[in-house]
Design a protein that fits this description.
This protein has an eight-stranded antiparallel sheet, with helices on both faces. A three-stranded antiparallel sheet has the order 5-9-6. It has a three-stranded mixed sheet with strand order 8-7-16, with no helix packed on it. The protein is globular and about 75 Å long. It has eleven helices and 16 strands. It starts with a helix and ends with a helix. By secondary structure, it is an alpha+beta fold. Helix 2 packs antiparallel against helix 11 and helix 3 packs parallel to helix 5.
Length: 368
C-alpha cells in the first residue's frame, strides 16, 4: 500500500500541472493531500484492524492528523461483568503516560519563577536533605538520571551519571509542585486539563465519573477485576504524579495538539521539555532517548511518546511532530502471566505501522 502511494503521487503532480482551458485550475496541494489522506486511511484500516483481530484487542485505538481523524476503533468491554462496551467516551487509566503531565506542571511553575530545573530537590523537600540525596536536581528527577529507585533507599549510581526509571522520583516532583504552588497536585492537574481543553480527564483522587474502564488481569474469557480502581493509583505502589491520571482517546489527542503547538508552554520551555537529555533501553520498545517525562525515537521517524502500565491497563501515546499526527492506544486488560512483551504486542505492532507510514510521508514531503 505504501509503495502504491509512492507511485501514485507523481501521477497526481502531472495531473495537476496540465493546462485546461474550460475547467477551473486544479488545486495541486489539495489533490495531493486528499490522495495521501485516502491512502493513509485505507492503510491504517487494513493494518490496525488486523492487529485488533489477531490479538482480540480489548480497548481503543485512534490515529489523528492534526484535527482530522484517520482511524478510530473500539472493541470489547469496559466492564466485563456487566457487559458494558467500550465507546468513544470511555475513560482509561493511562499509567506512566501521566508523567508528561507532571513534567509540564513543574515547567509551568518554572515559568512563574517559582523554581528552576537546576535547583536541588533538597531546597523543597525534607526527604532529600540527607547526604546521599542532597545534590539531586529537579532536572535529574525529570529525566530519571538521579539514581533514585525507592525513596529512602540507596542510590543506584552517582546522580547524573546513568539512567534508572523511578516512580518515586516523579512523585517527588508532584510534591515540589504542591510546595511551590501552595495547591494540591490534583488542583494543579485539573487546572492543566482545563487549560489544554481536556474535558473528560482527572486524577484518581478526584474522579467522580461513570465511564471508567475497570482494569482486569487475564483475558476476555477469564477476566479478574483489579480491586479498588482507580483509587489504588494514588497509593505508595504507584502515586498520582507517576501514574494516576485518567483520560480518554479524544482528550489525549487534544493534549498532544495543545502541548506540541505551544498552547501550554512557552516556546523555549517546550524545547527544554522535548530535548533529549538521557538515553534508556526500554524492556519493550528498545533503545530510545528520554526528555522530561517523554521518550524519543533514536533515528527516524521523529516522535515523542510514552507507554504506561498499571495493573490491567497498558497504554501508549505517540506524537509525530512533522505531520502533527497522534497515535493513542488504550486498554483495560492484560494477561500478565504471558509477560509484558506479549501484553504490549499490539502496541508494538501499531507503532511499527505508524512509524513506517510516517517515514514514507516525510520522505514524500521532502521530494515534493
Amino acid at each position: 500500500m505504501i509503495k502504491n502511494l509512492v507511485f501514485l503521487l507523481p501521477f497526481c503532480f502531472l495531473l495537476s500541472c496540465k493546462t485546461e482551458t474550460s475547467p477551473p485550475p486544479i488545486d495541486k496541494k489539495a489533490l495531493i493531500d486528499s490522495t495521501i489522506t485516502a491512502f493513509q486511511k485505507t492503510l491504517l484500516e487494513q493494518q490496525i484492524d488486523s492487529v485488533f483481530k489477531k490479538h482480540q484487542f480489548n480497548g481503543s485505538i485512534a490515529v489523528f492528523k492534526d484535527s482530522l481523524p484517520l482511524y478510530r476503533k473500539e472493541n470489547g468491554y469496559s466492564d466485563f461483568k456487566r457487559k458494558i462496551k467500550i465507546d468513544s467516551s470511555t475513560i482509561f487509566a493511562i499509567g506512566s503516560v501521566s508523567k508528561q503531565f507532571t513534567a509540564v506542571l513543574v515547567l509551568l511553575q518554572m515559568e512563574q519563577g517559582k523554581l528552576n530545573v537546576t535547583d536541588k530537590v533538597s531546597k523543597y523537600l525534607k526527604e532529600f536533605q540527607i547526604k546521599e540525596y542532597e545534590n539531586i536536581t529537579i532536572h535529574q528527577l525529570l529525566n530519571h538520571t538521579s539514581g533514585l529507585n525507592m525513596l529512602g533507599g540507596k542510590l543506584m549510581f552517582k546522580s547524573g551519571s546513568d539512567f534508572y526509571y523511578s516512580n518515586d522520583g516523579f512523585n517527588a516532583l508532584g510534591k515540589i509542585v504542591e510546595t511551590v504552588s501552595g495547591k494540591s497536585y490534583d488542583e494543579n492537574a485539573v487546572e492543566l486539563f482545563k487549560k489544554a481543553g481536556m474535558s473528560h480527564s482527572s486524577t484518581d483522587e478526584v474522579f467522580k465519573g461513570t465511564n471508567f474502564a475497570s482494569a482486569y488481569l487475564g483475558n476476555p474469557n477469564k477476566a479478574e477485576e483489579v480491586p479498588n480502581m482507580p483509587k489504588r493509583l494514588g497509593g505508595k505502589e504507584i502515586g498520582t504524579p507517576a501514574g494516576g491520571i485518567l483520560s480518554t482517546i479524544q482528550d489525549l489527542h487534544t493534549w498532544n495538539n495543545a502541548l506540541y503547538s505551544g498552547k501550554i508552554l512557552k516556546p523555549e520551555t517546550l524545547k527544554q521539555f522535548m530535548a533529549k537529555s538521557a538515553e534508556r533501553r526500554h524492556a519493550i520498545f528498545g533503545k530510545m532517548g528520554y526528555a522530561y517525562g517523554i521518550m524519543l525515537n533514536i533515528g527516524k521517524p521523529n516522535s515523542y511518546f510514552h507507554s504506561g502500565y498499571v495493573k490491567g491497563s497498558p497504554s501508549l501515546n505517540i506524537y509525530y511532530p512533522e505531520t502533527k499526527t497522534s497515535v493513542i492506544i488504550l486498554s483495560n486488560i492484560a494477561d500478565e502471566e504471558k509477560g509484558k512483551g506479549l501484553v504490549f504486542k499490539p502496541h508494538i505492532e501499531v507503532k511499527k505501522i505508524t512509524d513506517n507510514l510516517e517515514n514514507t510521508l516525510v520522505q514524500l514531503r521532502s521530494k515534493h
